[in-house]
Amino acid sequence: MVMLDQTVVAIALAPLARSLGFTTFVMHAIVLVYSLALAAFTPVGAMVSRRFGLPATFRCGTVVFVVASVLCGLTPTGEAAEPYLLAARAVQGTGAALMLPVATTLIANVYGARERGRALAVYAGLAQLFFVAGPVLGAFLVQSLGWRSVFLANVPVGVVTLWAIGRARVTGDAGGGRLSAGRPVAVVLPLAVFVSGLYLSGVWGLADPRTLAALVGGGVALALAVRLLLRSPRPLVDLRLLRIRRYAVPVALTFLVHAAQLVLLVHGTLFLRQVLHLSLPATGVRLLPLVTGLAVGTFLSGFLLDRSRSVRVPAVGGLAAATLGAAAWTVALPAPDHPCLVPGMLLAGLGMGLPVPALSAEMMGAVPAASRTDASVLRQTFGQLGGAIGLASAGAVVLGVNDDAADLAGTVTAPAATAAFVIATCVLAAALLLAAALLPRRSPAQAPAGPA
User: Fold this and answer.
1) What pLDDT score does 452 carry?
2) Treating both helix axes as pointing N-terminal to C-terminal, what angle do 24-52 and 81-110 enclose, rounded to 10 degrees?
3) 201 to each of 38, 119, 148, 266, 423, how far by Cα in Å?
């Protein structure tokens, strides 16, 4: 469900905005609110799992995600549509945040050492399969049943998930940890204010007092929250792990890759629909080079890491390919024929898929075994946060470049889409420079490269 949401909702954005009369600002916010909630509440999911156990947390997350999906599908028309859908998307992201931190741990706990690697490979393979199928499935659903179906389709999947985990009789001891509302609020609110200010700068202007108040106020409050976390004996998320350079550098690279990836996925989809005016089925099919490249790169990452014994090979090589592919895709955007876009899409997808699993293995090998759960949560938090900040930054630029008529109509013009692609390309280039400068040439013994 979580992997499908990234690609299926991107396909549904243009029909959804047209149906409900949403502006370009709201259309971006539909994706941004979900990503921000997922990033902000992932550490909360880990805290809840320590208190109530892994299976209970996973079931709760599934229920929240499914109920929020139903609410999204039942969005009313009229003036209430905008706040209603954005609130439902935030709840949906919260449900996903309760599932993601515990999913891999659940699988690892269920299977013995001999079966664990194969089980995790199946898990990663199914996730990538749904990610690749997302554009075509989303196009089919929207074309046949309307945009609401992309949310309501989560209901049968969620029911099957709850039935399966119940039938499997998965057990997990609750650790009895304490729940604290203060720490999540201290982190989530400043983060929401800062990211909202970043996005709203596209409407208000970067020098507007409201923008500066949101960015400065949110940034200062977030710094104070980080200081609180560092002093806490049992923090919501263990930021002290970032003092380990071999862990901190891959976290930063994961942040940057996710920032560029979400921008390219959302704006690549909107470009095909709103600039090239392709039909829904054609848009779904023509996104396949990007998502297939991502899937292939993800699977090749572990192989390259095992063969080379160096995280630099998949990370630096992948980021070089991603930067070149994104640049080629950007240059080809003005071309009227879609085939001109395919090489850049495929290379960008392949390049963005290669680094993340290898970086994940590098991170897990950099921290003590007792800290790996916290390290995984922190990695996922920064990855999702990268997507939110990347989309907020690109969205602000798009709103600034778009003309007023396009904003009101809920469309993205060719110059605005090109500006978003330039930002994504620059982010990938920055990640490439960082990886080339700071990643070790020879890594110590690696943990197996797990799912991204």
Assistant:
1) 46
2) 40
3) 22, 45, 30, 19, 16
The helix/strand/coil state of 346 is helix
What is the C-alpha to C-alpha distance for residues 40 and 93, in angstroms, rounded to an integer?
Answer: 9
Residue matched to tokens 């982190």: 187
Q: How far apart are CA 355 and CA 394, in angstroms?
A: 22
Distances in Å between the alpha carbon of 77 and those of 16, 26, 151, 247, 406?
11, 14, 16, 47, 21
Task: Read off the tokens for 407.
Answer: 């904003």
What is the residue type of 359? L
DSSP state of 275: I
How many residues are present in the chain? Answer: 452
Sign of CA pseudo-dihedral 262, 199, 429, 237: negative
- 51: amino acid identity, one letter: R
Calpha distance 399→47 (Å, rounded): 37
Q: Please, what sign has the CA dihedral across residues 376, 169, 59, 226? A: negative
Report d(CA 34, CA 37) in Å as an integer: 5
CA distance 314 to 264: 20
Amino acid at 339: P
And the tokens for 130?
């749904």
Dihedral-angle region of residue 446 (phi above 0 means left; psi in -120 to 50 means alpha; beta otherwise) = beta
The packing angle between helices 245-270 and 414-438, to 10°, is 160
Closest CA to 101 of 31, 51, 167, 154: 51
Joined tokens for residue 269 = 């989809």
In which residue ranges of the chain is pLDDT below 50?
445-452
